[in-house]
Amino acid sequence: MGLLPIRLRFQNHRSTQLLCASFHFIPNSGYFSQILSSNKNLSKCLPFTLRTRKSVVRALATESASPPAAKMVKAIRVHELGGPEVLKWEDVEVGEPKEGEVRVKNKAIGINFIDVYFRKGVYKAATVPYTPGVEACGVVTAVGPGLTGRQVGDLVAYAGQPMGSYAEEQILPANRVVPVPPSIDPTVAASLLLKGMTAQFLLRSCFKVEPGHTVLVHAAAGGVGSLLCQWANSLGATVIGTVSTKEKAAQAKEDGCHHVIIYKEEDFVARVKEITSDNGVEVVYDSVGKDTFEGSLACLKTRGYMVSFGQSSGAPDPVPLSAIAVKSLFLTRPSLFHYAVTRDELLGMAGEVFGNVQSGVLRVRVNHTYPLSQAVQAHEDLENRKTSGSVVLIP
Ligand SMILES: NC(=O)c1ccc[n+]([C@@H]2O[C@H](COP(=O)([O-])OP(=O)(O)OC[C@H]3O[C@@H](n4cnc5c(N)ncnc54)[C@H](OP(=O)(O)O)[C@@H]3O)[C@@H](O)[C@H]2O)c1
């Protein structure tokens, strides 16, 4: 017995109405055992119809019942903005992919700090309620009509819009998914694509790091930070990283930081001046925001680049032009979504990231995995600075 949505034209001696409802249909019997509808008219009228005009109802329903029953999956939903507790574990409907779309059954889902910004309302979700998440890896389970180039069974990953990866299965635009090389584990891919492409555009486009440069990376043991440090080191830069604890300092060292500063205990500006013999650094990659922004400007050398790409401690205070005029500094507030716009850009960036994993330049630290149903705990840990490396949800 299945649940079938149908549209029913009901006729009685006074009027004709078009009503929508869901019916439990008993196969081979032609009968509906139960009617689910919020429409009061329908619930009043239909028992009468079923008693007296079974054949009419049966004929209409058989014609209209061709669409398959809605597929339900588990997902995390946000109905109101707030703390981690607003992440609710629910059933959601996942439809069939339309033209240009694929349906993907997620194997692993990457958690990113941006998920926290949306949950709190720092960034505005297009709709509320919504399903969070902008990174996942999974298997294609259906392709939309006319789509070529993607097949059922393909292992793909995605990073960015549309939101909705905290789900067992989701619909995605086919041009936003990238194929995952067979040598890369799905959990690694899900914890790598968004963070790795972020490291890629920061180091290779936003400011081009070259041998001999000195770079400062805040939150060096975080998801993006870990990849940034390894990659910057491989490009020949001297890497200075900041972290909050000794354990994170040990990880940052392993990830290629030549100098690690525990910024909760030490004055990072003074330490950078000491390390660079008062010269300062060519570039600061600052994802911490409010707590570090001003100090980061002070760490730069003349004509240095301030790359403010996140705000895990809060939005930085407004910056007067005089603050960057003093050393002819460059200031940018970039977003991955503006660097991976076209299909070619997306494929080029993802290819470089996967290539760096395959060649050993990048070691992906999947330090924390949680069942998808426990996203609340995962968000709590991320916000409370208890995590390092990547955080992944497993459906
Ligand atoms: N612009 C873009 O396109 C783009 C793309 C991806 C990510 N990002 C940004 O990159 C940053 C890192 O993202 P991620 O997902 O990899 O997260 P993450 O770095 O793994 O986690 C955030 C880290 O920030 C540090 N932090 C400092 N002050 C904090 C505070 N008050 N509250 C919480 N954390 C604080 C913590 O490291 P310590 O304990 O060592 O201080 C924490 O582990 C985020 O700001 C994110 O928005 C930007």
From TrEMBL:
Q: Which domain of life is it from?
A: Eukaryota
Mention one GO molecular function: quinone reductase (NADPH) activity
Keywords annotated in UniProt: NADP, Oxidoreductase
Recorded GO CC terms:
cytosol
Q: Where in this chain does the record put each Enoyl reductase (ER) domain?
A: 82-393
Q: CDD domains attached here? A: QOR2
Asked whether the keyword Oxidoreductase is assigned, the reply is yes
Q: Keyword Nucleus: yes or no?
A: no
The family database entries (Pfam families) matched by this protein are listed as: ADH_N, ADH_zinc_N
Per its UniProt record, what PANTHER family does this chain match?
Answer: QUINONE OXIDOREDUCTASE PIG3-RELATED (PTHR48106), QUINONE OXIDOREDUCTASE-RELATED (PTHR48106:SF13)
Q: What is this protein called?
A: Probable quinone oxidoreductase
